[in-house]
Amino acid sequence: MERLRTVLVVGDGKCSYPELSEPVGKLLAQSQVNLLTGAGGGVMAEVSKFFVNSTARRGKCLGVVPSKTNSHEPKDERYPNEFVEVPIYTHLGGEDPYSSTSRNHVNVLTADGVVALPGKKGTLAEINLAITYGVPRVAFLGGNQIPGLPKEVEVVDLKRLKEFVRELPKRRP
Fold first, then answer.
1. What residues form DSSP beta bridges with 113?
2. Can you give the pLDDT at residue 173?
3. Helices 18-30 and 158-167 sit at what angle, rounded to 10 degrees?
4. Measured distance CA(173)–CA(157) in Å, rounded
5. What separation in angstroms does the CA of 102 have from each of 30, 89, 91, 94, 166?
6. Which of 38, 47, 48, 141 would you call most buried, defined as having the most Cβ atoms within 10 angstroms of its Cβ?
7. CB neighbours (10 Å) of residue 47?
C-alpha cells in the first residue's frame, strides 16, 4: 500500500484568510496528500474545509489536538474543528510554542513538508521548528506577512506551491 505524503499547514488560529486557505486546501486535495493541522480554527479549519469538501482527494484530514494542562481533554471546545477526520489527541498543551510541551514538535516531525499561511507566534514557531528539523517549508502569504519570517523560507505563489508539494520526498517508507 502506498503511503501518502503528509503536508502540515500552519497559520493563524483565529483569522481564516479564505482567499489563501481555499486554493491551498483544494491544491492539497488534488495533490493526493494527507493534510495535517493543529486541529483548531482560523486557517486550520478553513484549509481543512476546502480539503475535505474536494471530491478529488485521496488523503485524510489529520489534526493534532492540544489538551488542557495535565489532562487528556481538548484545550477548549474549538478542538478539534469539525473537518478533522483523524484527531490525534495529545497530552501536550504547551502555551509556549517552542517548549517541549508544545504539540508543534509533533506537527512538524510528522510532516513531509510545511506550508505556512499568515500567522503569528505559533506559526513562526512551527516554521522555525521545520528549519531546525530539516523539514521542507514554504510560505503562501498573498501580500500578508508573518512577522520575523526567516530568510530560509521561500515565499511562493500558487504555481510554485504546486511544484513544492509535487516535489516533496517521502521522509519515511
1. 7
2. 53
3. 40
4. 30
5. 31, 13, 9, 4, 29
6. 47
7. 33
* 3-state secondary structure (DSSP) of residue 139: strand
Of 70, 69, 7, residue with least CA distance to 34: 7
* Stretch (H or E) spanning 112: none
Alpha-carbon distance of 113 to 19, in angstroms, equals 21
Contact 119, 11 (CB under 8 A): yes
Q: Which three cell numbers stand for residue 3?
A: 503511503
For residue 71, report the phi and psi dihedrals to the nearest 5 degrees. -145, 165
Contact in structure between 36 and 112 (CB atoms under 8 Å): no
Helix, coil or strand: residue 147: coil
The answer to whether the bond into 74 is cis (omega within 30° of 0) is: no
pLDDT, residue 47, reads 98
C-alpha grid cell for residue 129? 521548528
- pLDDT-derived band of residue 41, with 50, 70 and 90 as boundaries? very high
CA–CA dist 33, 56 (Å, integer): 11
Mean pLDDT, rounded, for 48-54? 98
